[in-house]
Design brief:
By secondary structure, the protein is of the alpha/beta class. Among the domains are: about 120 residues, 3-Layer(aba) Sandwich (Rossmann fold); about 140 residues, Rossmann fold. Helices cover about 45% and strands about 10% of the residues. It has a 6-stranded mixed sheet. Strands 2-1-3-4 form a 4-stranded parallel sheet. Helix 5 links the parallel strand 1 and strand 2. Helix 8 crosses helix 9. The longest helix has 20 residues.
Length: about 400
């Protein structure tokens, strides 16, 4: 508004977001005619001609290799759901500033006014020459799986759906330390995941990669297993690698009985009596925001380790622990993709940072621990070289 006021003036949240949370600034001086001739015409023409003759030079003389597109269609934003591309922009800006603050990566928010899978893929592919990587964000399941898979096949730069893999990496790190604290090993630990959306599917897959054998994933109709006739292709594939291996069926309450670990990525509420039937020294991760599936004060009556997605409780499972360092590490070696090995390496690096400080209220580092970004980046770079996707 002309007088500097705005409809929510005085509200600190809206005041902070006034005119957005980010800007573009020059890294080149522009204070003289000589500066201008070097940064723009005529000097810039020489750089353009050099890149035209050798496109690989764009990785040296532009910002492309350090820049990630933060792409959404606004269909699954935080806990708000399908709010559309315009309303999603504050979250995408937030993601971009987190990339910069915690990974030194330049993020550009891109909110697409389409929910069509083919249109999203085509748009991102056409934009890809401007970026070193693609971070997909807040795209609803099951469309998000196809979009990511097809873009990974089409592009030779990292493509990463953070709602899936960022969540999975941090959950695995926290669970690794929780198992250590409670004297468990992955092979004999019973895990229940409630929620089979983007996060639930990715968490299930990374836990299997990390050695968990007994895993049940539930949705609103109970355990996902191949005996059900209402499964999407994604859920059917998930059933084969989870409950079908153990023969587990029934409701969430049924499989929580005697379970060692509960991981909630679904919303809703788990009754206290169901939590009480879990194994001794149980581990409860209620990650829905803003309201965890099991409130910490309830979970602590029955569990040894409790984690949430909130910053006002101990053990926050926060994706910012993962994605800035993952892209930093991928960019540092000009990786062509982000592999399962790179994700596992990121989780291991996060878990190891806790070290001897491990306790029931500290199974995962703080996002403000300055070691986090560099440790994750170094582990991811090393894993990219091992997996053969590093170009430098």
């Amino acid at each position: 508004m002309a007088d500097g006021s705005h409809p929510h003036a005085g509200d600190p949240v809206f005041d902070l977001h006034l005119a957005g949370k980010m800007e573009i600034r020059s890294t080149a001086p522009l204070t003289s005619r000589e500066d201008l001739s070097l940064a723009y015409t005529p000097g810039v023409a020489r750089v353009c001609e050099a890149i035209a003759a050798d496109p690989a030079l764009s990785q040296i003389y532009t910002w492309v290799p350090n820049t990630v597109a933060v792409v959404t269609d606004g269909t699954a934003v935080l806990g708000l759901g399908d709010i559309g591309p315009s309303a999603a922009m504050p979250v995408m800006e937030g993601k971009a500033v987190l990339f910069k603050q915690f990974g030194g990566v330049d993020g550009i928010p891109i909110c697409l006014d389409t929910t069509d899978v083919d249109e999203i893929i085509e748009t991102v592919v056409r934009l890809a020459p401007s970026f070193g990587g693609i971070n997909l964000e807040d795209i609803s399941a099951p469309r998000c799986f196809e979009i990511e898979d097809r873009l990974k096949a089409l592009l030779d730069i990292p493509v990463f759906h953070d709602d899936q893999h960022g969540t999975a990496v941090v959950v695995l790190a926290a669970l690794t330390n929780s198992l250590r604290l409670t004297g468990r090993n992955p092979e004999s630990t019973r895990v229940v995941i409630s929620g089979a959306g983007a996060a639930g599917v990715a968490v299930a897959k990374i836990l299997l990669e990390a050695g968990i054998k007994d895993l049940a994933v539930t949705d609103r109709k109970g355990v996902i297993h191949s005996g059900r006739d209402d499964l999407t292709p994604v859920k059917r594939a998930l059933a084969v690698i989870t409950a079908d291996q153990t023969g587990r069926t029934g409701s969430l309450a049924d499989v929580l009985t005697g379970a060692d670990v509960y991981i909630g990525v679904s919303g809703g509420t788990v009754p206290e009596e169901d939590v009480a039937r879990m194994a001794d020294e149980a581990i409860v991760f209620g990650l829905a925001n803003p309201m965890p599936e099991v409130l910490p004060e309830v979970a602590r009556r029955h569990a040894r380790v409790v984690a949430t997605g909130r910053s006002d409780f101990p053990n926050q499972i926060n994706n910012v622990l993962a994605f800035p360092g993952i892209f930093r590490g991928a960019f540092d070696v000009r990786a062509t993709a982000i592999t399962e090995g790179m994700k596992l390496a990121a989780a291991t690096a996060l878990a190891e940072l806790v070290g001897d400080d491990l306790s029931a209220d500290l199974v995962i580092p703080s996002p403000f621990d300055p070691r986090v970004g560099p440790a994750v980046a170094a582990a991811v770079s090393a894993a990219a070289r091992r997996d053969g996707v590093a170009r430098t």
